[in-house]
């Protein structure tokens, strides 16, 4: 009987495994990064998952006090910015700088997004924006040096195709990009600047003009929603090709291209009130392939209970393996529940985007990235239905990842906005299966550590919290119990047999992840 995954320790590498998932961590707004718990959470995920950069919003929001204008006299204050970036650098991560949003003193439209009133609008005077960027870059150059800045990334704005984030036109965003890239490159020609950081992939023309065409959005009910197979539609990243052609025509550098796919959003419409349809399971890898092709040819609601459950972890592991070779980095949004776009979460597990909750309790998604990070760099065998066998080129040690993403669910885990029952329904989808891994060519007695993450088992912290009655407020004792329960997965040591074969065969409940790592050659 064939095994789901089989390889020999001496097999040639079929593909390099680059940990693109551990380059950038996503976060909320800059002011949240001044909090002690935010910094503790960053240290925790940096140590466990190896993140190199953090991307966050609102460097120039009023609560960072950068831009100050009194009686026509402008001054710049970088004390809060320094405190944030110094803390990040001390932890060992660099900033992935997002130049946004607009200070209220120079915003053409106020209070466009979130309860804390982000100002997502063009400046009243582009020269004042340029002065602020110039002052920021000069300050950083003096404080950190040009060589350090060459290791950072500088991104112009966030999701300018969405009205809440950018009330201006596409051309006005392009003007902002041009002004910004010229100032940054004036600081140092090797500094990396990019964009357009637009939101999602769409199958229609709503974002093809200067502003989002709301009439196209209204017509979705008559057009796309009647399509039996929505994945047969031609999905494309917003603005990307147009932006690259425009930049080429202006002879402007684009050192990196950024885009925001949201595979767990409802497809076709913004709220799900019309369609409540999700795209298929491989939508994200396919979108990323298209994005890579466009670049090469060119001159998630923060309240979704599926974020807290095991299916999200299995989806992440599968998608990261399936996306190899398609992108350079991907930032999971976000690393911490210290995230206030919709205000503070009302429960310890409220469906926040994060890898760890407010009490620094790791969620199953944290383990998905930890397991991926433990794999080597040479894929020997991989398929998107089962997992992969991987070798570490430096140590020669083998590792494997086996999962059961139930074929009954052909999409990403559907959104469970403010509805835990949908997450429970997703977790109960599918039937148990038996799967096996065979690794040959080992030294007899070679030792491996096997970890298992399964719904309802250790590591599925929400199930333990629910068994306690889903308390809204955690005592210190309960916090420590849940943190311990969440941190360590069921583990056992297994060995290769006398012929140098390691056979792992077991029944897997739906959504189960099994990690196998060689610890003794």
TrEMBL record:
Q: Does the keyword Ribosomal protein apply?
A: no
- Source organism of the structure: Fusarium solani (Filamentous fungus)
Q: Does the keyword Transcription apply?
A: no
PROSITE patterns assigned to the protein according to its UniProt record, in alphabetical order = GLYCOSYL_HYDROL_F39
SUPFAM superfamilies given in the database record:
(Trans)glycosidases (SSF51445), Glycosyl hydrolase domain (SSF51011)
Q: What is this protein called?
A: Glycoside hydrolase
Task: Enumerate composition-biased segments (Polar residues).
Answer: 418-429
Q: Which UniProt keywords apply?
A: Glycosidase, Hydrolase
